Amino acid sequence: MPKLDRYFNIAELRKAAQKNLPASIFHYLDGGADDEWSLRRNTNAFDQWEIIPSALTGITKPTLNTRLFDRDIALPFFLSPTGMSRLFHHDKELAAARAAGKAGTFYSLSSMGSSTIEEVASAVRGPKLFQIYVFRDRALTQSFLERCKSARYDAICLTVDTTVAGNRERDIRTGMTIPPSLALKSLLSFTTKWPWLLGLRHNRDFTLANLSKNIDPKNSGALNIFDYVNQQFDPSISWEDVTWLRDRWEGPLIIKGLLSAEDAKQAQRIGCTGVIVSNHGGRQLDSAAAPIDCISAMRDAVGDSMDLILDGGIRRGSHICKALALGASACSIGRPYLYGLAAGGEPGVNQAIEILASETRRCMQLAGFHSVAALQSSGAVRKAGRG
Ligand SMILES: Cc1cc2nc3c(=O)[nH]c(=O)nc-3n(C[C@H](O)[C@H](O)[C@H](O)COP(=O)(O)O)c2cc1C
Predict the structure, then answer these.
(1) pTM for the model
(2) Which residues, 6+ apart, have CB-to-CB distance to 58 below 8 Å?
(3) Domains, the chain, with CATH or none
(4) Which of 88, 106, 261, 288 could disulfide-pair with 279, CB 3.0 to 4.6 Å?
(5) Range with lowest mean pLDDT among 43-52, 203-212, 371-380
(6) Nearest atom, ligand 1, residue 312 CA
(7) Are 319 and 67 in contact (CB under 8 A)?
(8) Whole-number Å distance between alpha carbons of 167 and 38
(9) Whole-angstrom distance, CA of residue 80 vs CA of residue 131
(10) Cα–Cα distance for residue pair 340/345, rounded to 1 Å
(11) Which residues make beta-bridge pairs with 156?
(12) pLDDT band at 331 (very low <50, low <70, confident <90, very high)
């Protein structure tokens, strides 16, 4: 395997992921919905914001630590929930969770993960949250809460932007299923991906680990993820479900997938601890606004007492700095760490985190901010080109 320090930015890790993964799996990771407008816009929108640095501040070593969901964390970003990490590396979620723990930040386990709630809890002592959907079967949602309580998860995050599966045309084209099936059109791309194929020696389990008992055995062959979402997730979820959850989970409760100031305010009224400002990385509603364009209005609406997380499009430390200055308490990343996972397992995730941490630190130093709090209260970011 090539040395990971050859990959010196997230775009390089993406290329390495593409090299290692069978095509259908890479496109499942990389792609978005419909025309992928929101996917592109999530990153491109950062270009419309600029930083006005403060000169001669005497900063020598900016610190990155902050507080989030009632925990101290070492970085102003964490790992977003992503389903089925086994697709990308045989060490699956455990590799990513260990890397997050080592870096001192949150790992988020998806309810569509290939590792169980308990496996991840015993692999890491670091802060962790569990992401749930409201399933048609409320007893399943309730059982997740009980398991998370026993396994001492710090927070629960409810994703609300997936009432129906997004239209991911790359996956339709490649015939993506879970576990990956060797359709004729994708066979060639599997046979040339030796590192991925060798991973099958270590681990051939591609089940949705937390849901396998609930999947109808009649349909237990290759699973089309869109069909699963459309069958099992409750499309009629409403604020009443958030209240239902609030009444059953005593710890921090976060809603993922809001973009409007009014919705953030409503989440606050119901007693949510935080909001992940997100369009699911452009994988659900195409044309949904980029989170970076929404964050400051949402911050104005909720004031300082609620955690707001910028999720989507982050590929550089300067993106993290812009988000913090515009009102984010912290950021979260999806694809960047999955590219690292596909490029080299746990060391690859370490590399993705280290790239973004060192870019953020350098950006803060060059912009003249010694801490996350100083950047957040600086007003140093404005619309680009105003002069
Ligand atoms: C492969 C993949 C799987 C994902 N699975 C989930 C999921 O199970 N639950 C969820 O809330 N979000 C999921 N997401 C969305 C991420 O949590 C996050 O919102 C998104 O990746 C952020 O955008 P970014 O990839 O540009 O950082 C997934 C994203 C990817 C790329």
Answers:
(1) 0.96
(2) none
(3) 4-51+75-352 (3.20.20.70)
(4) 288
(5) 203-212
(6) 23
(7) no
(8) 13
(9) 9
(10) 7
(11) 130, 253
(12) very high
